[in-house]
């Protein structure tokens, strides 16, 4: 339970750190946010069962996370474009992995394996993304938290199951 609370706390801290970029009305910040989101969302959305595709997506995301430049539709993007870019990309990538798993795997169970390959590879090289992924997963699906409180006599079953 401590690990669960710590992961959620780290996720909240990361969100608070990037909130200035998320809520900024400045045109430059909006453009930065848009470009960074594209650099994360497009590759994750392109994951398919083809091994070459999985390797390309992993390479692109890993390059971005290590500070290298990646090409989006019309420009190159790197973490050097904004002071909060690293935390922003980590947070959005973890969030997108969970969303992608929820949407794609629910309708196409075979898509779980290529997604899992990319997630586990990124997690191994970038543990902060892995921690944020787990925190987002716990938020989205509390039943995934490995915690089973003992049933106390007299507590209504509805309350216990919450």
Automatic annotation (TrEMBL):
Pfam families: GLE1 (PF07817). GO terms for biological process: poly(A)+ mRNA export from nucleus; protein transport. It is found in: Nucleus, Nuclear pore complex. One of its GO terms (molecular function) is inositol hexakisphosphate binding. The keyword Transport applies. Keywords: mRNA transport, Nuclear pore complex, Nucleus, Protein transport, Translocation, Transport. One of its GO terms (cellular component) is nuclear pore cytoplasmic filaments. The keyword Protein transport applies. Required for the export of mRNAs containing poly(A) tails from the nucleus into the cytoplasm. May be involved in the terminal step of the mRNA transport through the nuclear pore complex (NPC). Belongs to the GLE1 family. This is mRNA export factor GLE1.
